[in-house]
Amino acid sequence: MSILLGRETKVVVQGITGREGSFHTEQMQELGTQVVAGTSPGKGGTTHLGVPVFNTVHDAVEATGATASGIFVPAPFAPDAIMEAAAAGITLIVCITEGIPIQEMIRVKDFLRGYPAARLIGANCPGLITPGQAKIGIIPQRITSPGSVGLISRSGTLTYEVASALSAAGMGQSTIVGIGGDPVLGLAFRDVVELFEKDTATTHLVVIGEIGGSDEERAAELLARGSRLKAVAFISGRTAPEGKRMGHAGAIISGNRGTARSKEEAFRRAGVAVAETTDEIVGLLR
Amino acid sequence: MKLLEYQAKEVLASLGIPIPPGVVARTPDEAVAAFEKLGRVAVKAQVPVGGRGKAGGIKLAKTADEAREAAARIIGMDIKGFKVPLVYCEVALDIAREIYLGITVDRDARANILILSAKGGMEIEQVAEESPEALSRLYPNPWRGPLDFELTQLVYDAGLGDLARPLTTLIKRLYRAVPEYDALTAEINPLVVTGKGDVVAGDAKLEVDDNSSWRHRDLEERYGSVLEGDPYEVEAKKRSLTYVSLDGDIGIIGNGAGLCMGTLDLVQRAGGSPANFCDIGGGAKAEVVENALAVILMNPKVKGVLINVFGGITRGDEVAKGVVTARDNLKMTLPLVVRMSGTNEEEGREILRHNGIEPGASGWEAAKKIVELTKAGARA
User: Fold this and answer.
1) Is A55 in the same domain as A171?
2) What is the ipTM of this complex?
3) Which domains does chain B have, with CATH numbers?
4) Which of B100, B175, B223, B243 is catalytic?
5) Closest in B110, B254, B257 to A109, CB measured
6) Which range of residues forms the domain containing residue A83?
7) Are strands B336-343 and B304-315 parallel, antiparallel or unpaired?
8) Residue B225: pLDDT over 80
9) How many CB atoms within 10 Å of residue B226?
10) Coil, strand or helix at B31
11) Exposed, middle or buried, B247 (CB in 10 Å: 0-12/13-18/19+)?
12) What global pTM score does this model have?
C-alpha cells in the first residue's frame, strides 16, 4: 500500500523526448512504473523508449487512460503544461521543473481550483516514489526500500539523505513525497500528512521542513489533533541569516511565523519528536 | 531583483503613479547641483533594504551646504551590510497624511494580497500587530486583477473614502507591476497626501522575481550594475552559482538548497561559523565544484572548506576525482573535508584519502572534523 502512486498507476510523461524527460522516464520504467504515454507537440504518432508519443495530454489520456503525469518541460512552458494536464482530467500532476515565476504559479493555483480532483506536486520538486512499485520524478530508487515510513520533504537532497539513512537502518518507506521548495506550491505538508494518516500501510512519518512560510506549522496543527502515526520532524535553516527584507508587506502578513524555532515548537506542541540533525531521525523514529 | 527607491519610482512613474521630482547624485557636488535645481530636498540613501531612515540614511537639506554635507556623509555609508552607492535628492514633500499601500505574495494563501491602511509610515508593522483591523486586505483574482468595486470596498474599509477616486486609480496602476513586471512586492509607504490634497508616492519598494528575469532584461540592463554587491556574490553570479556570503570562516559547498542549509546548521552546531552558503545543484560536476571552490577561496577569511555532496545518481568516485582536480588546479592548501555518499562512495573515499583529503563519514562527523581542523589551523 501507499499514497498517491502505485504499481497500477498509468503515467504520461510531458516532455518525454527531451534530455531530462528521456533519462528519467527510463529510470521510472526500470522501477516498474507504468509509463503508458508521452507528449511532445509535433511528435504525435511516434514512439519513444517504447512508449507512444502524443501531441497533447488530452490525446494521450483519451488513448491510454493515463491518470497521472510527470512534467519535465522547461520553465517557460511548465505552467501551461500543468494546466493542460488538469484540463485533460489528470488527477496527479507532478511538476519537476524549477525556475517557474511565482506569479505564474499563482495563476496556475487559481486555475486548479476549477479542477478539484487534480492534485499538483511541486513545482521545483524531486517528485514522489512508492518504493518497489513506481515513481514519478527523479528520486533515485537505489536509496529507497519498501516499508511503512511515510516521508515528506521540501528539499531534494535532504530527502535522499534521510531516505538512504532509513533504508540503511532497515526502515523501508511506504511513499516518499518531495513537495518542492518554491513559495507557491501544489500539495502542502498538511495535505500529504492527511493522506498518510488514512493509509493503513503507513505507521511512521518523517517531515523534513524548511524555514519560510507556515506550511509546517499547519501540518503540526493537524497532527496535534491526534495521530496514529509515530512522527519525527526536522527543520533545516535554523542558522540561515534572516533575509534582508525591504518592504513591510511580508512582515505584515507573516508576523513571527516561518522561523525554524516557530516550526520546531509547533511540532513539539503536537507531540512530534524534533530531530536536531538528520542523523538523529532514525533513532527518534524507532 | 530588488530595485532601489529611485529605480522603483521610475518604474511606478512609467505606470502613471505620481512621484515627487528628484535627481540621483553620486557625489556631494552632484547633490549641490540637485539642490540648485529642486530647492529644499530630502537626501536619501539608496539601498535595497528597509530601515535606512533609522540608520541615518535620510537627511533634509535646506541649503546647498547642507545638501553637500548630507551627501558626503551618506554616500559610502554601510546600511545593514550594503554600501550606499548613491543618494536620491528629492523635493521635500508637504505631508498632510501618510497612507500605507502594498502588494505582496501571501505564500500561505498561494495568492497576491493588496494591503491598504490609513495609518501609513514607519510604524506600519506595529500597527499590523496591535490593531490589525486598521489594515484592509484584498486578494485580487490573478488572471484579471482587482475590479473597480473591489477596490472601492477596500478603500472604504480602510476609512479612506474621501480619497476613493484617486486611490482606486492609483492602486490599479500599482497593481500593473504584478502582471507587467512579475513584482513579488510593490509597496508605497508612505503614500503621501500633501497639504494641497495631491496623492504622491513618498517611498517605493519593488522586488521583481528572479525567475522571470528573462522577461525583463530591460530592468537588468538599466539597473543591474548600480549596486555594488558583495564581491564574492557578484563573482558567484558570473559563474552561475547560488551563493550567499555569511560572516564566518568555514567555506561550505553542498548540492541542493536543503542539504546546503542543513550543512550550515551542522557546522554551527559543531561550534564553527560558516563563511557562505553555496549550492552547486545536482550532479556535482568537477567544473562546477572547481568554480565554487575558486569563489570561496577568494575570501581571505576562509580557513577551511567543507564539501557535502549527496550523489543520488552521481558517482562518488567521479565526485572525488573532481574535488582532487579542483583543489590541485587552485593550489588549495587550507583544510578540506569532503562528505559524500552515492554510488561507489567507498571508492570515492579511497581516492580522497589517497590525495590527503579528509573524508567525513556523515554530515555531522564532517562538520565536527572541519571545525576541529580550522581551529587547529588558527592556533598553529
Assistant:
1) no
2) 0.88
3) 21-91 (3.30.1490.20), 95-223 (3.30.470.20), 231-375 (3.40.50.261)
4) B100
5) B110
6) 10-122
7) parallel
8) no
9) 16
10) helix
11) exposed
12) 0.90
